[in-house]
Amino acid sequence: MTSRTREVKDEILMAQHPRAFEQGLLLALVDAEAQRLSDGTPALAVAEARTARVLHRIAKDLLRIDAVVLVRESGARGRRFLLSFPGKAAQRLQEFSERSRRRMGAVERRGYLAGIFLAAGTLTPPQSGYLLELRLARPQVASEAMRILRRFGITAQRRLRREYSVVYLQGADQVAEVLSLCDAAAARLALEDARSMRSVRGVVNRLVNAESANVEKSVHASVDQSARIRAFAAQGGLNVLSPKLREAAEARLRFPEAALEELGAALGLTKAGVHYRLRRIMKIAADHMGSGLGAK
């Protein structure tokens, strides 16, 4: 389990929720994790001790029943915690599980989503993208999760992965909305912070790339100017230049890759002044040597 997923689940488990929210949460765990022990006793299987403790408390508060917590070791899945409901507790749990999912209110539906996330949810760290998945062994529970998400205006996708139905949604906005529905406000804020940082890094990277491109373009232009002036000088062309233009031409030959600002500092000129003199030199060179050396 990723640390981000663990943080979201811990936040859900540690928060104080309304009664209706807890009803939905317990109902989701019944749908997703219910099984029967070898003697037929109904039980809920969860992977974390904290989840088992919270479910034990919720079952006691809502159903007035005391579940028995058992620990099971499984080679494939590691340690699992079983909340068994023997005797009359089994009947109360059965009556509770028969509640209509279609008649749940908004708060209860939010609790149901939180319960499904506790049972089967994973959240990809923001630096790897924005992906929330619900990996469910029971197709009917996946269908219920899809229905509830649609009720909240959230578009999820579904696919089969081995024997599991995977309900997933992508995009920071949708993932953030689900976290809010699940009462994981701190996790949503962490996601928003990460998204802001990614956005800032993206802007900085674009600016750096643009600046690098401009520098490379400027260097290529400077080298090309130097080559043209060198060819012009080889034919005695510098002798036809005025003293100021010749000074600029010689400066370019001494510093073939220098930016205009750097040449300006050497000549005591502004960038615009250097640019003007170099353009004049390029035009004079083109006039003396033919259009093949036209100014660029």
Explain this structure to me?
By secondary structure, the chain is an alpha+beta fold. It folds into 2 domains: 3-183, Homing endonucleases (Endonuclease I-creI); 215-293, no CATH class. Helix content is 60%, strand content 15%. Mean pLDDT is 85; it is low at 291-296.
Q: DSSP strand (E) fraction?
A: 5-15%
- The SSE string, one letter per element, is HHEEHEEHHEEHEEHHHHH
Q: What is the share of helical residues? A: 55-70%
Query: How many domains?
Result: 2
The overall strand count is 8
Shape: rod-shaped
Give the rounded overall mean pLDDT: 85
Return the structural class. alpha+beta
CATH topology label of the largest domain: Endonuclease I-creI
The biggest beta sheet is recorded as: 4 strands, antiparallel
CATH H level, superfamily name of the largest domain? Homing endonucleases
Radius of gyration: 35 Å
| Poorly predicted segments | 291-296
CATH architecture of the largest domain: Roll
How far apart are the termini?
60 Å
